[in-house]
Phage virion morphogenesis protein (Scandinavium lactucae), 148 residues
Amino acid sequence: MNEFKPFDDRLAGLIAALSPASRRRMATDIAKTLRTRQQRRIKTQKAPDGTPYAARKRQPVRAKKGRVKREMFAKLRTNRFMKATGRYDAAVVEFTGKVQRIAKVHHYGLKDRPNPHSPGVQYSERDLLGFNQSDESLIKHLIIKNLG
């Protein structure tokens, strides 16, 4: 049995006693905080477990000159594409629109075409969104802060 089970049960009861509006505010706060942490982690190019992402594949020697390569997922992690929403029953951090497909390909390591005229490329698996122990403890801390 988990030693925190009685604490978790009591915490669930306190959360259930909150009004739907205050639960939504709390979920929105949690989602925004998690989004910030996920963005910071993606910027450092690390998976939720702390391992670094697989390196980018080398480009051909005769590639275009003068082109500046951006770091991986620079636009993907912006607030425009990474949305944080809170409802009375859930806190959600997700990618929206067309970038959702790009994120899915990289997250699961699927095969995709970089542009319509190129052959398919097998991408390495790079976990973009995920939880670790510090995220869970942060969520518990935010819940307790909102209850107090």
About this structure: Residues 20-43 form the longest helix (24 residues).
